[in-house]
Write a structure and sequence with these properties.
This protein has 232 residues and is an alpha/beta fold. The protein has 8 helices and 5 strands; from the N terminus they run E-H-E-H-H-E-H-H-E-H-H-E-H. The protein has one domain: 3-Layer(aba) Sandwich (Rossmann fold), CATH 3.40.50.300. The protein has a 5-stranded parallel beta sheet, sandwiched between helices. The longest helix has 25 residues. The protein is globular, with a radius of gyration of 17 Å. The protein binds thymidine-5'-diphosphate. Thymidine-5'-diphosphate binds next to helix 4.
């Protein structure tokens, strides 16, 4: 399950997910700029990272050169980074009524560690429910990209691949399939887009979905002041 049954917080939580090289960071930034221009308080953030300790954990888990990193260790580092991120940044911003836009969240752990590393989607989901105290996004934007296109985009300009990115094509093929499967289990909570579309077209589709979610959230706040149901 990718959305909480209930998120009694006034803000809106949007996550970007997808394979490496899908263009998530670019689209997250464009969305944040558009929402700020419309007068919203926006926290634009990323995982792993988003807090001082999270950025240290990011280095540990993504850089080469720390010796062997087992799958469980890897899952726990991502979850630890996420716990700090939710506690120190995301939840406070949502409590203030802001819009949080994060580049990756729990979906990445379910897919990369649960499926890619073979730890099991359910086990990794449960670990992350605990780490975040059950905070799920209201809307997840999945930018779908196939492994060949993703690899050619991320290595353009000789950019070095991190520990996860440098996994073989089969790993990234499984990651892509698992993201699509996850989205199918909660269609109402996902916007799935073909990452090969023009960046401007993608940005328009994303802003339109987020604007609808914001309107639904405002209507829910008006209908039930003091108790806000999460979007499905
Ligand atoms: P990302 O920040 O998207 O990479 P970059 O900014 O270098 O483009 O993500 C870093 C890598 O971490 C990516 O390969 C996916 C992986 N990852 C996981 O395996 N599990 C997780 O929970 C998260 C958040 C990321």
């Amino acid at each position: 399950m990718i959305s909480s049954a209930e998120t009694p917080l006034p803000g809106l939580f949007v996550a970007f997910e997808g394979g490496d090289g899908a263009g998530k960071s670019t689209q997250a930034r464009i969305l944040a700029d558009s929402l700020r221009a419309a007068g919203h308080e926006v926290l634009l953030t990323r995982e792993p990272g988003g807090t001082p300790i999270g950025e240290k954990l990011r280095g540990l888990v993504l850089e080469h050169g720390h010796g062997e990193v087992g799958a469980r260790t890897e899952a726990l580092i991502f979850a630890a980074s996420r716990a700090a991120h939710v506690e120190q940044s995301i939840r406070p911003a949502l409590e203030r009524g802001g819009v949080v836009v994060t580049d990756r969240y729990i979906g990445s752990s379910i897919v990369y560690q649960g499926v890619g590393r073979g730890l099991g989607a359910d086990a990794v989901r449960d670990l992350n429910v605990w780490a975040t105290d059950g905070l799920w996004p209201d809307l997840t934007v999945l930018l779908d990209v196939d492994e060949a296109e993703g690899r050619s985009r991320r290595t353009a300009g000789d950019a070095a691949e991190d520990r996860l990115e440098s996994e073989p094509d089969e790993f990234h093929r499984d990651v892509r399939a698992a993201f699509l499967e996850l989205a199918e289990t909660r269609p109402g909570a996902y916007l799935v887009l073909d990452a090969r579309q023009e960046p401007g077209e993608l940005a328009e589709a994303i802003l339109s979905a987020v604007t609808s979610a914001l309107e639904a959230r405002s209507a829910a706040v008006r209908a039930h002041p003091g108790r806000v149901e999460a979007r499905p």
